[in-house]
Amino acid sequence: MLMPWLRLFRVVNLPTVPGDVLAGAAYWMWVLGRAGRYDVSLGCALAAGLASVFMYMFGLADNDIVGAKYDKGRPIPDGEISLGAARIARGLCLFAVLVTGAVANLPPSWWIVAFVLMLICVAYNRTKKPVLMGVCRALDVECGMAAAQQTSAAPAAHAFISGLSEIALPLVWFVFFAAVTKYSEGEEDDPARKRRVGVLIGAVVYLQLAVLAACTAANPSLSPLLVSGVAMLVLLWGLKFALPKVSAS
């Protein structure tokens, strides 16, 4: 009975999620370093990455609960997982987000972004608007940026540049995922499109690694984040090889 749960949580896709946070954290640390303001916690960034996985799983469970009556080919409408069990799993995933944030003592800015992310995720599941999926993944990047703890104000000369920098990377994620989500419409009836969507979703790992590599080249102290990103890529390859029947979308 494990396979239905692996399909519910699109397990082969999970390694693409924490990389959003890691890329956001590394990018923001680089921005802070350029502004002469660098007091961050790599541990917070890694914890925020783990929390993002639980948030994503919450969203997937909520999505399938909402679509239980019409999402053919999914575990709930196929009778492999009951609605009650799915609701319990959804609650546990959200609880795991809260516990991770509390144990890691993530900063208030992270809690605010995570709460907005949860609301947008719930809204997307009920409207299926591609733009909202773009916002979700952009906010995932923002969670990484928010997890980069800061203790002093940025120099005034760099304030405007930092403000522009704050939206640059999330904007890239927003455009990419909004476009992929729009393209995925109707994939249930088009196996070839479904495969292409899976490839596009998997490709985001390479985008994450590009950001992590660039930031690490500028600041070698960020190498633990790059190593974590590489580990996510290896895990993605392993899951795709081991679980070919589990869809990524």
Over the alpha carbons, how many angstroms does the gyration radius reach?
A: 18 Å
**How helix-rich are the residues, as a percent range?**
over 70%
- Helical segment tally? 9
Average pLDDT reading: 87
What does the overall shape look like?
globular
Into which percentage range does the β-strand content fall?
A: under 5%
Looking at the structure, the CATH topology is Tetracycline Repressor, domain 2
Number of β-strand runs: 0
CATH architecture designation: Orthogonal Bundle
Straight-line N-to-C gap: 20 Å
Low-confidence parts lasting 5 or more residues at pLDDT below 50?
A: 151-161
> Which secondary-structure class do the elements indicate?
mainly alpha
In the CATH scheme, the class would be Mainly Alpha
**The CATH superfamily title:** UbiA prenyltransferase
Total domains: 1
Quaternary state, please? single chain
Task: Note the main sheet.
Answer: none
List the secondary-structure elements in sequence, H or E. HHHHHHHHH
SSE blueprint:
Blueprint: H1 2-8, H2 18-34, H3 42-66, H4 83-103, H5 108-127, H6 130-147, H7 156-183, H8 191-218, H9 223-242
